[in-house]
Specification:
Length: about 400
């Protein structure tokens, strides 16, 4: 088949590659642009230089990055956006990502001739014209309404829980309509596909697994620091902050009762003052942004993923497995990944179970190594980015062919 003319729309930025979603999109764009004519419309914070993104994707035919600052919580602009969303079909989290300059760029590209439009994350969909005029792929890295539903479930304040209850139901309605509007929706796991099929039963929804850069993330032979734990992730994303606050309050004290020297490194960008204070009180290292997470993962004995809220799949787990690390995760943390508890990682959902799983691994080096070797073997054999992107590409080509009939 001849190369496709693909318009990829990603609001919220792609650079720097500090989140799982950005990494997934960058790797797939890099692979696709080698074989197809790919144009990218995205955003960047005002004052940032998008040149680094252009350097990272040299084969892209064109990259249009629009300066845009999302309204910050607590500002008048944020309050206005929330109020504006109430009378609209959009949840507040999508209302604030409707960007006139992005919509204008999309219309320009469509007018010049495009075979396929990829809406990267649900937040891209409000920026597409109606009708689009070409087949649309909605790339769902998460089931967004489930994230909001889980936020509602763990929220302790009654007034905020009531607002979140309205918001997650509104998100579910919009998400179902978006799946029905798209010619094809691609999820990152079969579990996510099943959730979306339940709320959009007539939509064409396929699952393509996530991938990992096995050349970049690999065991480097560095010695483990005794009783050292690590968590990596964007700490300005609430589910990650919630996970670490929960770990510090409910899990780490239990671990230290049996392993007094246990330490934790929390590695990732933009931790809040609340998280920094909690980390300092618990004697935990909170790094903030780092240039490279690999040294922190290399020295850890156990990689922990105590997530209670989330959706999609966690690239962080695949990265840890690729580095040959023993992983302990909640069910939510490992949700959607084709990995087996006791074989590739240990699943533990209650605080007591999680603590005991970590303690057991800290005391058993052979068990840690066995899990790490099994995880590395799995991602090497099945989940390179080239393999994953070929599967994504095949679904896209099928949609374009179907649309042309």
């Amino acid at each position: 088949m001849k190369p496709l003319r693909i318009l990829w729309v990603k609001v919220g930025g792609l650079w720097p590659p500090t989140t799982g979603g950005r990494l997934r999109s960058l790797h797939m764009l890099d692979e696709l642009s080698r074989r197809h004519r790919v144009r990218l419309v995205t955003t960047h914070p005002p004052g940032d230089d998008p040149a680094a993104l252009t350097s990272r994707l040299p084969a892209c035919e064109r990259i249009d990055s629009v300066p845009y600052a999302m309204p910050k919580q607590g500002t008048m602009r944020f309050a206005g956006d929330v109020a504006g969303s109430w009378a609209s079909p959009y949840p507040a989290d999508l209302w604030r990502w409707r960007i006139p300059a992005v919509r204008a760029r999309i219309r320009e590209h469509l007018a010049e001739g495009i075979d396929l439009c990829v809406a990267d994350f649900l937040v891209a969909m409000p920026n597409l014209p109606t009708p689009v005029g070409v087949p649309v792929v909605l790339f769902e890295h998460n089931v967004e309404h489930m994230i909001w539903k889980r936020l509602c479930q763990v929220e302790k304040r009654a007034w905020r829980r009531a607002l979140l209850a309205v918001e997650w139901r509104k998100m579910r309605r919009y998400e179902a309509a978006a799946c029905a509007r798209a010619g094809l929706t691609i999820t990152v796991s079969e579990a996510d596909r099943a959730l979306l099929m339940a709320c959009a039963p007539g939509a064409d929804i396929r699952a393509v697994p996530t991938g990992v850069d096995t050349a970049y993330f690999h065991p480097n032979g560095a010695a483990e620091a005794p009783a050292t734990l690590v968590f990596t992730g964007s700490m300005d994303w609430y589910p990650n902050e919630d996970a670490i606050l929960y770990f510090l309050e409910s899990i780490l004290p239990e671990i230290r009762r049996e392993v007094p020297g246990a330490s934790l490194a929390v590695v990732g960008r933009d931790p809040t003052e609340r998280l920094r204070a909690a980390g300092a009180a618990a004697g935990v290292r909170v790094t903030g942004t780092v240039a490279d997470v690999r040294p922190y993962v290399s020295e850890a004995a156990v990689y922990v993923v105590p997530l209670r809220v989330g959706g999609g799949t966690r690239l962080k787990i695949f990265e840890a497995l690729a580095m040959g690390k023993a992983v302990v995760s909640t069910r939510v943390g490992a949700e959607g990944l084709p990995i087996s508890s006791e074989r590739h990682f240990l699943q533990a959902d209650s605080a007591a179970e999680f603590a005991q799983a970590v303690i057991g691994l800290l005391k058993d080096g052979d068990r840690r190594r066995a899990l790490g070797l099994a995880g590395r073997r799995l991602v090497e054999e099945r989940f390179s980015w080239s393999q994953v992107t070929r599967e994504f590409e095949s679904h896209c080509q099928e949609l374009v062919s179907r649309h042309a009939r």
